[in-house]
Known about the structure:
The chain is an alpha/beta fold and 246 residues long.
Amino acid sequence: MTNINVGIVGDGLTDYKVFGKIVECILLEENSDFVTVNVIPLIRKNIFDHVQKYKNACKKNPDEYYLPSKTAIELRANILATVLSAFEEFNDNVEVSYSDILLITTDTEHILKDKNQYFDTWAISLSHILREAIEKFYDFQAIRGYPRQYLPVIMPLVTFPSIEVIVAAARGELNKNYGKSPREWKLLLYKTEYPQDEQIEKEALNYITPDTINHIFNDLPESRYLIQTLSLGLKRCFLTGKSNCE
């Protein structure tokens, strides 16, 4: 039996549960007989405040959205510090290896009018900064001589405006409701701003299945890199036997 540990950096309970369910749906879809997934919320730090500071600075000066601006460099450095801390916390829980996953996620609280707006340079630049921070993490570990076999696969995902858009996509309710605020999404999906475990289970997790992963992929551009990386790379290398990729 192969075990895959999944550390999740997020903004709160809903993030840990929803992203955990997505990972399980993808990794266990064809491999549940010989794979287990161990989801570990990493709660010491998150990147929400850093992203909000970056976003507010860029509202005053749009040129700050892009590297190598001072604001973008500061965000990259703060994300790198968070990833380093998350990796340490991950290692405190399990012995991390290259078959494990570290998700770095946050809500932007920035409303898009439609899904194509994600590809506007100012919006997608945030994903680019996260990926650069992850490359900086691997560079830092390589310089130290840290064995790659004990480093996780790190995947970023920022949502516009909040994680509720993932749930809405799974429920088939995203495209007709673009433009809502995080508060409006919560009220639409949960009928409350503060959903509890039972409501998250009923109104969110029950809708996330292997079939609805396809809806999320089709309707939410920011999710596609994560979904395809999980679906292709990890299934081929780690779930069908390490001999296939040694």
